[in-house]
Amino acid sequence: MSEHLRTALDLAASQIPVLPLRAGKVPFGNCPACAGNACGGRPNMKTPGPCACSGVCHAWAAATTDPAVIASPSWGAAWRQAVCVGYHPGGAGLTVVDLDNAEAIAWAHGALPATRTVPTTRGEHWIYRGAMRSVNAVRPGVDIKSTMAYARWLGPGTGTMTALPDTVRALAVSKPAPARPGPQAVTVPALAGGGECRHRTPAFLERGIAMAEQRITGASEAVHTTVYRTFLAVLSTHGRCGCLTHAHITRLFTAAQAKGETVRHCTDAWANARTALGM
To answer: Which residues sit opposite 147 in a β-bridge?
Structure first.
């Protein structure tokens, strides 16, 4: 039995719904029978648990406390590939305030009541008793993960867990903080050997950007991965002749943010895509 599977079964025994997360710390994609939500998914996607196929489908809605499902052969391949364990905070009656940097942590110490904290790669998770609506980017560096969301299991944390305060609930209805300035236009070398621009006409580039926007907007799961792969495709096709402008990139970032991505996530994904292509 793998360490991740053992952890998942321990959490499930404590009534914390769990699911495996793959590389990139994202859920596994739907099985062929559920691709494109062909199976209908979970009713309104409001309750945790696998769909009728018993696969690791529908992201957070696959999370379950049933040990027979968690240790089933249909989940076995996913656990062998898993990089960590995810859980559905709302399904456990919890809310995670995800603080992504030192500035966000400093804000929380001054604005929120103390509760159980768990260190993360960049910041901390503050965990409260009580569930609420999940909202990304309620202020710079702060996401709320509860219902219809998942979080990484990073250990039990320290401190006494306290009740979900009204100050956290209010963040979900407050006016979002202004977005940070958008990305700069891409400046890349000309094609090797002086090759001509592949766009040929402005319509070729416009069609490519429009298709990329549609791909991001249509993502029903694994949004982080979809955004990265879309950025990679755009840069691979349109990024080496210098025709991409600030306006084009802003359109892609706007589409990603409409799906819940933060400006930082967009900036990181764009930078990672450029690095992967050697730009």
So the answer is: 133
Residue type, 8: A
Sheet holding 18-22, edge to edge: 26-27, 18-22, 84-87, 151-152
Decide if 150 contacts 88 (C-beta within 8 A): yes
> Residue 1 CB: number of other CB atoms within 10 A?
9
Distance CA(234)–CA(230), nearest Å, equals 6
Q: Which residues of 176-213 are buried (b: 16+ CB within 10 A; e: fewer)?
A: eeeeeebbeebebeeeeeeeeeebeeeeebeebbeebb
Q: List all residues 6 or more positions away from 260 whose beta carbon is below 8 Å from its beta carbon.
A: 136, 137, 223
pLDDT digits (tens, 9 = 90+) for 103-119: 999 999 999 999 999 99
pLDDT value at residue 46: 57
Across 118-136, average pLDDT: 94
The per-residue pLDDT for 42 is: 63
Q: How far is CA 219 from the centre of its chain?
A: 12
User: Tokens 């991505």 map to which residue?
Assistant: 261
In three-state secondary structure terms, 255 is helix
Give residue 172's pLDDT band: very low, low, confident or very high (50, 70, 90): confident
How many residues make up the chain in this entry? 279
The vertex-25 CA angle with 240 and 7, nearest 5°, equals: 165
Structure token pair of residue 124: 């901390």
pTM: predicted TM-score of the whole model, two decimal places: 0.63
